[in-house]
């Protein structure tokens, strides 16, 4: 059988008894380094063109990245040329450090310095693989041999930099495949490199610990980071960086726990593009911090524009459910979610801490509109439908009509199988409730109040031949119902009616909704009018029309003509 878990061996956890990181809380953003133009680019089916690289670089600068890995110039001519272009065309802001990757091989390091000639500030990032599998199966070298590669590389990096004092150099070393490296050996190599670079004597130095392959749960990675922080020499002079990949889907979590465990710096890419399942997603991690009230030091407010540039440069589309950036991540289709969001948003006061059910952050902060929050499909309920009518058309429905109308919308959604937009919802509402038939148009009304209640005189029907009705009741609705019964023999029992004054932006001033039984038939209707009484009486006629027919009973019209 091919699918056999016994083929795999569980990752051995770190034997640690002094674990402190679980009690730590992240209180500030780490130093970020964007590696979209190197690691991200190496993973693309079609590596970026110079124009795409420039666009990505400009975006990263605009977002606030101060450290940007721009390529692997010794291994790729386009990367070399791009590096030269940035330097020669003076396209690197003064406060931004470019970083370039190189293997720990003298000729490659030399070529790397050629690429960097004239740079104001630069990070030379040198790496070699240190894991057991790489030592034993790829390089056929023992620990000493691997350490020697790192040390001799570090020496070339140091010596080449000394020849170019005009540049402000930072040295970075990565024990590549760190997660598969014995911790004591990783520390041994790191110490050997820092013996060469001497960060304690002023040379800025970064140790980047990559989960080149994510091999265990994020807590194990955090243990590894804490162990290294505790066991390397010159820790206080070294910036500890992490570079997590997403093989198990936990790259962000691993980086977050690593920061709790002592990491100062985090490498990643926008939207997590990168080798295999990707690099750590900078957008997600930064926004996670933001959602905890921590300044991410990056400006991610234009999320749609960020996503557009990333898509244009990587030719990979953003998943609609991508945290914070996906098209659907702030949208609720489910009825109960919509209801909760609607209530929270309605109660929310400007300046209050964000506390809205189902929305971890305010979508507005990343350039999203509240219109996108509630979208309607067959899963949606009364709350969502009511919210859309209220939000887009200023129409508030009573609860009983919300329930009734949401079924109309749901039926439509089930028939069409997809989303129902706001325009369609409004059209459905108009068709189902607001239709006024020519024979049942309220033309005028006159209400006389006395001690016995209301006497109503109304004129209804076509403009040329309206029918006059007269009735009595405790209120206008009862009086007109009585008139309809005495004139047409329609027995009416009103079950509910509600009137609303409408806000600005509508032609009508009032909306009335009514539910009744006419001649034993349940009907509901609504009407918009200039005043609440007109709206209520029109709603009554429209509901009655549903029960007895859209045409006025002939007998009524004949009687009217005869009486005229
Ligand atoms: O994933 C990795 O190990 C790398 C290194 C070169 C840092 O990209
Ligand atoms: Zn990587």
UniProtKB/TrEMBL annotation:
For whether the record's keyword set contains Magnesium, the answer is yes
Q: Could you tell me what reaction this enzyme catalyses?
A: 3-methyl-2-oxobutanoate + acetyl-CoA + H2O = (2S)-2-isopropylmalate + CoA + H(+)
Superkingdom of the source? Bacteria
The EC number of this protein is 2.3.3.13
Gene3D superfamilies per the record? 3.30.160.270, Aldolase class I
Q: Where is the Pyruvate carboxyltransferase domain?
A: 30-304
Q: Which residues bind Mg(2+)?
A: 39, 243, 245, 279
- Annotated localization: Cytoplasm
Q: Where is this region: Regulatory domain?
A: 436-564
Which pathway does it take part in? Amino-acid biosynthesis; L-leucine biosynthesis; L-leucine from 3-methyl-2-oxobutanoate: step 1/4
Against InterPro entries, the record matches this protein to: 2-isopropylmalate_synth_dimer, AIPM/Hcit_synth_CS, Aldolase_TIM, IPM_Synthase, LeuA-like_post-cat, LeuA_allosteric_dom_sf, LeuA_N_DRE-TIM, PYR_CT
Q: Which metal ions or organic cofactors does this protein require, according to UniProt? A: Mg(2+)
Q: Its Gene Ontology biological processes?
A: L-leucine biosynthetic process
Provide the Gene Ontology terms for cellular component: cytoplasm
One GO MF term, please?
acetyl-CoA C-acetyltransferase activity
Which keywords does UniProt give here? Amino-acid biosynthesis, Branched-chain amino acid biosynthesis, Cytoplasm, Leucine biosynthesis, Magnesium, Metal-binding, Transferase
HAMAP family assigned: LeuA_type2
Assembly with partners or alone:
Homodimer.
Function (record text): Catalyzes the condensation of the acetyl group of acetyl-CoA with 3-methyl-2-oxobutanoate (2-ketoisovalerate) to form 3-carboxy-3-hydroxy-4-methylpentanoate (2-isopropylmalate).
Query: What family, per the record?
Result: Belongs to the alpha-IPM synthase/homocitrate synthase family. LeuA type 2 subfamily.
Task: Please give the name of this protein.
Answer: 2-isopropylmalate synthase
Q: Which species is this UniProt entry from?
A: Marinobacter guineae
Name the encoding gene, please: leuA
């Amino acid at each position: 059988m091919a699918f056999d878990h016994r083929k795999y061996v569980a990752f051995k956890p770190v034997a640690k008894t002094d674990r402190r990181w679980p009690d730590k809380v992240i209180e500030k953003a780490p130093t970020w380094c964007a590696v979209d133009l190197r690691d991200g680019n190496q993973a693309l089916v079609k590596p970026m063109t110079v124009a795409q690289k420039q666009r990505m670089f400009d975006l990263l600068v605009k977002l606030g990245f101060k450290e940007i890995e721009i390529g692997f110039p010794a291994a790729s001519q386009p990367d070399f040329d791009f590096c030269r272009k940035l330097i020669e065309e003076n396209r690197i802001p003064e406060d931004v450090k470019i970083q370039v990757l190189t293997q720990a091989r003298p000729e490659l390091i030399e070529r790397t310095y050629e690429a960097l000639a004239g740079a104001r500030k630069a990070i030379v990032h040198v790496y070699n693989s240190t894991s057991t599998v790489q030592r034993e199966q790829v390089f056929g070298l023992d620990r000493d041999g691997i350490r020697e590669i790192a040390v001799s590389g570090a020496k070339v990096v140091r010596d080449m930099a000394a020849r170019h004092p005009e540049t402000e150099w930072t040295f970075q070393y990565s024990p590549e495949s760190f997660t598969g490296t014995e911790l004591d050996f990783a520390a041994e190599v790191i110490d050997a490199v820092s013996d060469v670079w001497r960060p304690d004597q002023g040379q800025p130095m970064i140790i980047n610990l990559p989960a080149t392959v994510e091999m265990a749960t994020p807590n194990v990675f955090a243990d590894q980071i804490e162990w290294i922080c505790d066991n390397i020499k010159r820790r206080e002079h070294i910036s500890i960086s992490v570079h997590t990949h997403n093989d198990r889907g936990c790259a962000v979590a691993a980086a977050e726990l690593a920061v709790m465990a002592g990491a100062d710096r985090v490498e990643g890419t926008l939207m997590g593009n990168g080798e295999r399942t990707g690099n750590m997603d900078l957008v997600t991690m930064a926004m996670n911090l933001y959602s905890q009230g921590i300044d991410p030091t990056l400006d991610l407010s234009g999320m749609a524009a960020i996503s557009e540039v990333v898509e244009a440069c990587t030719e990979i589309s953003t998943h609609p459910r991508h945290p914070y950036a996906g098209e659907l991540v702030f949208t609720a289709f489910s009825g109960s979610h919509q209801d909760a969001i609607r209530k929270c948003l309605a109660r929310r006061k400007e300046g209050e801490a964000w506390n809205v059910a189902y929305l971890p952050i305010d979508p507005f902060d990343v350039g999203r509109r509240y219109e996108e929050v509630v979208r309607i499909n067959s899963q949606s309920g009364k709350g969502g439908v009511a919210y859309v009518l209220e939000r887009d058309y200023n129409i508030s429905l009573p609860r009983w009509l919300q329930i009734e109308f949401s079924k109309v919308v749901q039926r439509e959604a089930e028939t069409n199988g997809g989303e129902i937009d706001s325009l369609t919802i409004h059209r459905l509402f108009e068709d189902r409730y607001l239709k006024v038939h020519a024979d049942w148009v309220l033309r005028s009304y006159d209400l006389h109040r006395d001690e016995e209640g209301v006497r109503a005189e109304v004129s209804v029907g076509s403009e040329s031949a309206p029918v006059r009705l007269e009735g009595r009741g405790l209120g206008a609705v009862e009086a007109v119902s009585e008139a309809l019964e005495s004139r047409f023999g329609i027995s009416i029992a009103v079950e509910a009616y509600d009137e609303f004054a409408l806000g600005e932006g509508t032609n009508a001033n009032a909306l009335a909704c009514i539910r009744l039984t006419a001649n034993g038939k349940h009907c509901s209707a609504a009407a918009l009018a200039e005043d609440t009484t007109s709206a209520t009486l029109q709603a009554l006629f429209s509901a009655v029309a549903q029960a007895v027919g859209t045409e006025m009973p002939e007998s009524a019209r004949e009687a009217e003509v005869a009486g005229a």
